[in-house]
Amino acid sequence: MGMVRELCGSHTTMPIDDMETIEDLARHLQWIADASQSDAFIDCPLADERTALVVAQAHPTTAASLYKTSVIGQFAHFHNEPAVMFCLLSGKPMLGSRGTSQEGIAMQQNVVPIRSKRGSVIGALILESDISKHVEQERNVERLLESNEQLGETLLSLAMSEGGMQSLMQEGIVLFDDRLKVTYTNAQALKLLQEIGCTGSIAGRPIDEMFDGQLSSIAKQEHTGVFRSEFQTKHVALELKAVSLQRDHGMVGGFILIRDLTELKEKEKQLLVKSAVIKEIHHRVKNNLQTVAGLLRLQMRRTKHEEIRHVYLDSINRINSIAVIHEMLAFEGMETIPFHDVAARIVKTIISSSAKPDQRIITNVVGDELILTAEQAMTLGLVLNELVQNCVNHAFVERSTGEIEVSLQRLGDDGRVRVSDTGLGMRDDGAASAARSGHIGLQISETLVSENLGGTFELSSGQFGTQVDITFPLGRMNGEQNDCYY
């Protein structure tokens, strides 16, 4: 605190008891800074009424400080901190005033007077906080408003020549004045207006008479933002964007951008037709596959050989698995397929057609939704059919109950499908590959996963059942490998 008395004694005519008052407040200055999260100062007046002396300073420990170095002993001038000088001269507090720190940073000041025991002003307590970011935001807003006004004036007053940049634009440009009459149209706008039947001179024509009155809300000043609309005739489709420019709460004009959508609309119609045709093709393929499955089912019922019946049934289930994919493509009309529903339908179909009447096999399809391409879904559907069919035919051959679970999981860019059962397990070595296991369904599955999905096929089996894990990249497109096994 000796620094406070030394500075006051060297630069002011302050009596000893006033210095003690300043010293007593300076002892609590750090608490004040921490509580207010601001830089705290005590300034004392000098003989020059436009200058004050910084006699005490405290940086907040609860917030960032405005200052990198101490400013004790430096002078505060009127042009940088007018609020401090006003407070010292008038004895009145100044709250929310703006100024510039000794280090050139924009700040907000709260200043209150420090009075002696006799009531005279002997100093000022100052709390300062950084508002440089706020000031910069205000400047950016001012620049934006100024640029917007200049742009509006330029658009309204620019005399555009036909050889200028506007002739290269694809959009038609129509400018109108405060009387809502056309003052300018570029070549593209003239061409589009003529195509919709606007003949004769366009200049001076009211905008509410154009486009069958669709711009009436602009004309009536009912719409002050960006007005968007589409205008269609038998042969032409246009997109309209109209903007009214305001100044002092009044319209000073505006502009209309006209874009030709005729070709785009025609392509949209063609896509809708193609989509409908593709959906119909999938629907007919699904119907044809179901017809083939029905014929095979009739043949199966006529045979008395159990082995042949199994061959028929395997073929029917494979056909039905493919039919499920085509049915979803026909119904959704999408190029990708959510596989969770496909898996549930395939499992349900196999259990209902292959399980014995006295068996109770519980099935669960759980996990994430895998979005697959049609080729991926077709391949994975066939693989799932083979695996579930194997579970029904072999895992529960000596049991009346059992459980089959199909788990779908997304692992980053890969997908994993796990088929597990609670059956007897494989009679041969559980670690053997599918190709050496003697099961044709597993051989087909391993081949499809490797060649069509570019994935891996892992099989494990034991006394508590069998588990197959299929991992494959979700992003793989089989455009170069469409030779599926059906």
Automatic annotation (TrEMBL):
Q: Which GO terms describe its molecular function?
A: kinase activity
Matching entries from InterPro entries are given as: H_kinase_PdtaS_GAF_sf, HATPase_C_sf, HATPase_dom, His_kinase_dom, PdtaS_GAF, Sig_transdc_His_kin_sub2_dim/P
Transmembrane ranges? none
Keyword Nucleotide-binding attributed = yes
| E.C. designation(s) | 2.7.13.3
Note the PROSITE patterns from the entry: HIS_KIN
Domain of life, per the record?
Bacteria
What stretch or stretches form a coiled coil here? none
Domain called Histidine kinase: residue spans: 280-476
> Which reaction does this enzyme catalyse, per its entry?
ATP + protein L-histidine = ADP + protein N-phospho-L-histidine
Q: Which Pfam families match?
A: GAF_PdtaS, HATPase_c, HisKA_2
Q: Which UniProt keywords apply?
A: ATP-binding, Kinase, Nucleotide-binding, Phosphoprotein, Transferase, Two-component regulatory system
Q: What is this protein called?
A: histidine kinase
